[in-house]
Amino acid sequence: MRKAFIFLTIIFIGLFLASAAGEKTQDIEAKGAESKEIQGQKESQETLQFTAGGHVLGFRKGDMFIASSDHALRIEFVNSRPVSPREEGKSPDTENTSQAAKPLGKVSYRNLWEGVTLSYEKYRSGVVKSTYYIQPGGKNKVDPVDQIRLRYNVPLKVDKSGNLLASFETGQMKESRPVAWQEIRGRRVPVEASFRSLGKQEVGFRIGSYDPQHQLVIDPTLIWNTFMGSAGYDCGTAIAVDTSGNVYVTGYSGDWGTSPDPVNSHAGGTDAFAAKLDNSGARVWHTFMGGFASDNSYAIALDTGGNVYVAGESGAQWPPGDPKSEKTVNGHTGSGNLDIFAAKLDSSGTLMWNTFMGSLDSDTYPHLAVDIDGNVYVSGWSSAQWPPWTPPDTKSDKTVIGHAGGTDAFAAKLDSDGALVWNTFMGGTAADRANAIAVDTGGNIYVAGESGDWGTPVTGGEYAGGTSDAFAAKLDNNGAYQWHTFMGGAGSDLGTAIAVDTGGNIYVAGNTGDWGSPLNPHAGGQDAFVVKLDNNGAYQWHTFMGGTGSDLLRGIALNTGGNVYVAGSSRATWGTPLTAYAGGTYDAFAAQLNSSGTYQWHTFMGGTGSDLGQAIVVDTDTPPNVYVAGESNAWGSPVTGGAHAGGYDAFVAKLTETTEINIRQDTTDIPDGGSYDFGSQKINGDMDVTFTIENTADLNLTLTTPITITGTNADQFSVQQQPSSPVTSGGGSTTFDIRFSPTSLGAKTASISIANNDSDENPYDIDLTGTGKYELTITAGTGGTTDPTAAVYPYEAVTNEDITAIPDSGYRFWNWTGDASGTNNPVTVTMDSHKSVTANFSDMATKFVIINPADSTAGTATTVTVQAQCTDSSVDTLYNDDVTLVADGSATGGGLVNISSGVGTLSINDTVAETVNLSLSGGGGLDISSTQDVLFSPGAATQFVILDPADQTAGTATTVTVQAQDTNNNVDTSYDDDVTLAADGSATGGGLVDISSGVGTLSINDTVAETVNLS
Fold first, then answer.
1. Domain 224-656: homologous superfamily in CATH
2. What is the pTM of this model?
3. Where is this region: Disordered (predicted)?
4. Is 325 in a helix, a strand, or coil?
């Protein structure tokens, strides 16, 4: 998983400071015996061997060494885990080399201490760079950093700058002060870091507080800075870099002495200088140019042949008799004022020619550009028309547009031998100054500066008023005016630098008050600005940089990717810099924008004095290196031989731009060399996980090849979606999907490798783990639960699992279905494949219910049904027991009802026509409150019955009742008809009896005392 990391980056500079005069300076020096001792130790242990910086590097379990033929440095990893070193990638020049001579690429010790991975990799400006990757998670117990303990084979010392010095008899090896940082969603957050002395020969690290949820990184990294100069005032004003990474700087200075000897010696006072530094910042040569007056150089450029061109101002002819004067194309005007000079040096610093340009008044602050044919273009300030010169020719003859008065901006072209081809002036009657010049591949010239109103500017680029406006102008290769435009507001606006890209777009930098609609708002005071124009001078965009103090831009450069780099100075901090503002009057700064003007990064350089950035250049490396020149009090840790000499020195600083690949899954960071666990996944199932690649640095991140999966179980993982490339700088992202599809039980391992152009994390490797599992799906039906609880369970090995069904109250276990059957409870399931088991439950009876019986006729039985019912009135078909049915009245047949499968019946009869109430008793604890009524109705009449009449005295009538009855002597109330009542003897009143509802009456009388028979 992508977790938080601290990157503690240590650079083995590999430059030795001689301990005594006359001793030979070497990269690393120690006794030869020590080298033999290290090479002879642990011979049986496997050693990875490489070369870097003129040394052999060996990596083993527990230690590493850096050695040459007669000295060696060994570093032991104290109390570390027994981790073998791993070669992470191959250096591009490793083909056809033996193991012992193999150039170093990258070697890692993964999890060397718990949560700590250490890597070593090739470093262009030294021998080797070590980086510690600190994983989070252990900080609540013991901070992983506290585990790191290194034991050296030589005495150690931490200098005032925080660098670690390893002392040998003849010199020292220096490891740069560690830096630690974090990337928190595109914002770089530095973390305080330093060496921690643990004894005479042991060291660890001390870091400040950090957020363990985010990866840590720094970019760009200050690789080296060096000072050049005397004890007086020395200023670096311009810088250039060749394709080999050599750096050329110019400026003005007092004498530097003779260490090393200059190509041409100092003439006195302030002289212009040029110097060449190699890629590591070491001085290759330097030379002075000038006479006894003041000579200042402000511009430098290179041609394809390695020649160096400088331009500046000079107060007098350079001394006669000196080799310089013999190579002067055109002499100084001798007016006592400053003239412009241009000079050409070969690749070793030897003067090839110099020439002067200017008027009898002051001509100052030149800048220059060189085209592919070696023609030189110079711009600057001039106070008057240029007079005739020697040899007999006139500058005025070659002037395209004449001087307009006051101070005018000028541009001039010299051929490759220094001869003037043409010159021209730009401006009006106010002060007009050209501060920068550039030339495109077609030979067109672009000038930037500051000016009052003049001419007819490009539409939309009119003069805005105020003290001055920044301006840009285009000339063709013959010096003919093409267009000009103004930039700025109502205050003072200065154009100080200009560059043109391959598409002909123009970028102007300077400082200004607020104006227009910028991409980034003005912060107050004087802010730095960058403006983009198209090739016709039409405005495209502008942006501001800076804080509430004064912010000045003096240099601009472009790289092949269209990014814009600027250098300048700030009086106070602003934004979120990569390196914090150090204080003092000014700090130098460098910044990058993309081609759309969007801010990418900025960084400060300097100490507590005044540090001014004057020029910037970018090389063609991938990623590019950025070089800044300026003037400074002492700061930082300059390279050997580049120590501060006092007062103000010229400085050169090299910054390395990088890409920075970060990978996360959701919100969890996964470091290079980290891992991601898919967990358990159903066999023959798929689990897709999306990962995000972020680029938090300054260059676009290129993913050079598709993601590949390797390892023991590579066939169990697959890339479902490849990431897109490039990933844009400054927080761009892309995603890729990995699928885990196990086909068998057990742990699976593989790894993915992401090839990219991040120099210290290429390839970016992530270990993948996952486990194939069988799944048991347990389901509980309505009315119960199971143990284990109903869910899906993984099984990573064949296992017998017992499952118990647990019915709820009012329910009973019924049976198992699925991959288990029957009624055994618990049931055992063998997990040798995917299984699914369901526990089924049924309701239990809670009551007896008498189902409403059918009514009947008296004497005819009716069937009564009794059910054992659940709470939802369903029949409990599992119930088998008895209950007693009670029938009241004359009914017969009540008694024990045998309940089987939840139902029982009993026959009830009653010869009496009546309603019989049915109820229950007993019931085994079930509810027996259920009752029902059964109506027994009389049957059809089968007989007339004369009810016994009351006896009576003779002469008094008595009532005789006749009923129509059924066979059970019940009155048939439905009968309506007549019957004749016959009375014998002397009785009277007999006759027809009207039967209604089964009953009729008739009165009988007899005056004779006798028994009367009725029929």
1. TolB, C-terminal domain (2.120.10.30)
2. 0.51
3. 78-101
4. helix
